[in-house]
């Protein structure tokens, strides 16, 4: 991977800016680690919509929005900023892990997943065709479809932006938009984008995905791009072990991949604030311990190499 593509390097990269992610960030900063926090345009919408929170210790009779702002202000006061670039993949690297966000890449020695629970489930055959005609990243895979016909299933504003990007490469873009009208304001679609109304039901094809089944019709193309707010954890991190309840972790927050930890709603119920913030702290402390051991191991390796020269 070209070093010129690397935007930043971190000790700990935290994917998610809800209660678990911000708790992890605050505790990692206290332990003097260089962190990067990746989040959406609006951190923790679920908390924002809670009319009352009565079970968070020390903050009785508080609204979800007020508590959300307290979390964000705490992070801001500690110098923590939120990177709004959506992470679409986390891959092993000789220095730890590479996080991809469109055409940007970030390096991290360890990663904490705090992605919450996605309310949007994969459509039928989506996972089976991932990498075989189905993609979650237009910037990553768009060049493969230069001069070809593609379908974009847009679940958010980013999906409309990705459709415009693909319109510069593809011969034709078919857009199925599930974006609310207020969220699409200000975006002008390219002339070679045609819109089709309907709710996606399934990916269709044989060895390779060839189209999408909507409620009342089927549409066909050479490639299909599905753009949602978040990517399912096991698709975000290849090889990550998950169950129907969430990401599988040890008590320390460690996943099956050394150096990757998880916290909050993404590891399963109960979906409670106190649990999320506590797990965020545990994951951060575990990542710090991992880094300390990692650095010590690297130092030992360097000393062995020096001694043998």
Walk me through this protein's architecture:
It is globular and about 55 Å long. The chain folds into 2 domains: 3-118 and 231-304, FAD/NAD(P)-binding domain; 134-227, FAD/NAD(P)-binding domain. It contains 7 helices and 17 strands. Helix 1 links the parallel strand 1 and strand 2. The strands form 4 sheets. Strands 1, 2, 3, 4, 5, 6 and 17 form a 7-stranded mixed sheet that branches. The protein has a 5-stranded parallel sheet with strand order 7-14-8-9-10, covered by helices on one side. It has a 3-stranded antiparallel sheet with strand order 11-12-13, with no helix packed on it. 28% of the residues lie in helices and 25% in strands. It has helices at residues 19-30, 45-48, 64-77, 138-141, 157-167, 233-236, 273-308, and strands at residues 6-15, 35-38, 82-83, 89-93, 96-101, 104-113, 134-135, 149-154, 172-177, 193-195, 202-205, 209-213, 218-220, 223-227, 242-243, 246-247, 260-262. It is α/β, with parallel strands linked by helices.
Short description:
28% of the residues lie in helices and 25% in strands. It is an alpha/beta fold and 309 residues long.
Count of discrete structural domains: 2
- Which class do the helix and strand fractions yield? alpha/beta
Number of strands: 17
Per DSSP, the total helix count is 7
CATH architecture descriptor name of the largest domain: 3-Layer(bba) Sandwich
How many strands, what sense, and barrel or not for the largest sheet? 7 strands, mixed
Query: What's the CATH first level of the largest domain?
Result: Alpha Beta
The Cα radius of gyration reads 21 Å
- Tell me the helix content: 25-40%
Distance between the termini: 29 Å
Task: Tell me the fraction of residues in β-strands, as a range.
Answer: 25-35%
The geometry reads as globular
Q: Point out poorly predicted stretches.
A: 305-309
Chain-averaged pLDDT:
89
SSE string, helices as H and strands as E: EHEHHEEEEEHEHEEEEEEHEEEH
What would CATH call the homologous superfamily of the largest domain? FAD/NAD(P)-binding domain
What name does the CATH topology of the largest domain carry? FAD/NAD(P)-binding domain
Domain FAD/NAD(P)-binding: 10-280
Pfam families: Pyr_redox_2
Enzyme class: oxidoreductase
GO molecular function, one term: thioredoxin-disulfide reductase (NADPH) activity
């Amino acid at each position: 991977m070209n070093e010129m593509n690397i935007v930043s390097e971190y000790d700990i990269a935290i994917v998610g800016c809800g209660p678990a992610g911000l708790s992890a960030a605050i505790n990692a900063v206290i332990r003097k680690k260089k962190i990067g926090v990746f989040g959406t345009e609006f951190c923790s919408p679920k908390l924002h919509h809670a009319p009352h929170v009565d079970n968070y210790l020390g903050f009785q009779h508080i609204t979800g929005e007020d508590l959300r702002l307290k979390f964000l202000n705490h992070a801001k006061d500690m110098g923590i900023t939120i990177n709004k670039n959506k992470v679409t993949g986390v891959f092993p690297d000789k220095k730890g892990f590479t996080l991809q966000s469109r055409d940007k890449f970030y390096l991290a020695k360890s990663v904490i997943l705090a992605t919450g629970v996605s309310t949007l489930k994969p459509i039928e055959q989506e996972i089976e065709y991932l990498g075989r005609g189905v993609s979650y990243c237009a910037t990553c895979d768009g060049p493969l479809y230069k001069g070809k016909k593609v379908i974009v299933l847009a679940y958010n504003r980013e999906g409309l932006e990705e459709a415009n990007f693909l319109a510069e490469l593809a011969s034709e873009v078919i857009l199925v938009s599930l974006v609310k009208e207020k969220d699409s304001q200000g975006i002008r679609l390219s002339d070679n984008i045609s819109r089709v109304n309907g709710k996606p039901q399934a990916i269709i094809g044989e060895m390779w995905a060839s189209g999408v089944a909507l409620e009342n019709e089927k549409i066909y193309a050479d490639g299909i791009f599905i753009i949602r707010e978040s990517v399912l954890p096991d698709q975000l991190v290849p090889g990550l072990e998950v169950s129907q309840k969430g990401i599988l972790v040890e008590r320390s927050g460690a996943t099956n991949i050394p150096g990757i930890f998880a916290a909050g709603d993404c590891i399963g119920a109960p979906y409670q604030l106190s649990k999320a913030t506590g797990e965020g702290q545990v994951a951060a402390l575990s990542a710090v311990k991992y880094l300390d051991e990692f650095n010590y191991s690297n130092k030992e390796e360097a000393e062995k190499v020096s001694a043998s020269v």
